[in-house]
């Protein structure tokens, strides 16, 4: 699984990067064969003023050409990361189950890609 992690308005320390990679790997490892890339974007919306302003966005690129987007906000960036990882795992599971169960009822765009 390839991770692309970047921050906007907040530094990405090695400890934070390790936490992100561990949590997402744990939540998504069962889908690893279907995942091309995981993009993580962290941001501090209010700066030093505080509040519920730490945002974590995750975009998971799946095969065949599907992207899952998940976002969460919290005052603690680690809590936001944990929630996003859990939600991303659930969303990918639902999406892949839908694609598997679709059989011959798949959309033409999904069949052509």
How does the SSE layout of this entry go?
Blueprint: E1 3-8, H1 14-28, E2 35-44, E3 54-62, E4 66-74, H2 77-102, H3 108-112
Parallel strand pairs: 1-2
Antiparallel strand pairs: 2-3, 3-4
Describe the structure.
It is a single chain. The protein is an alpha+beta fold and 113 residues long. It has a single domain, classed as Ribosome hibernation promotion factor-like (Double Stranded RNA Binding Domain, 2-Layer Sandwich). Helix content is 41%, strand content 30%. α1 runs parallel beside α2. The longest helix has 26 residues. It is elongated, with a radius of gyration of 16 Å. It starts with a strand and ends with a helix. The mean pLDDT is 84.
Keywords:
4-stranded mixed β-sheet; Double Stranded RNA Binding Domain; alpha+beta; elongated
Number of strands: 4
The SS-based structural class is alpha+beta
Order of helical and strand elements: EHEEEHH
**How many helix segments?**
3
The number of domains:
1
Radius of gyration over all CA atoms, rounded: 16 Å
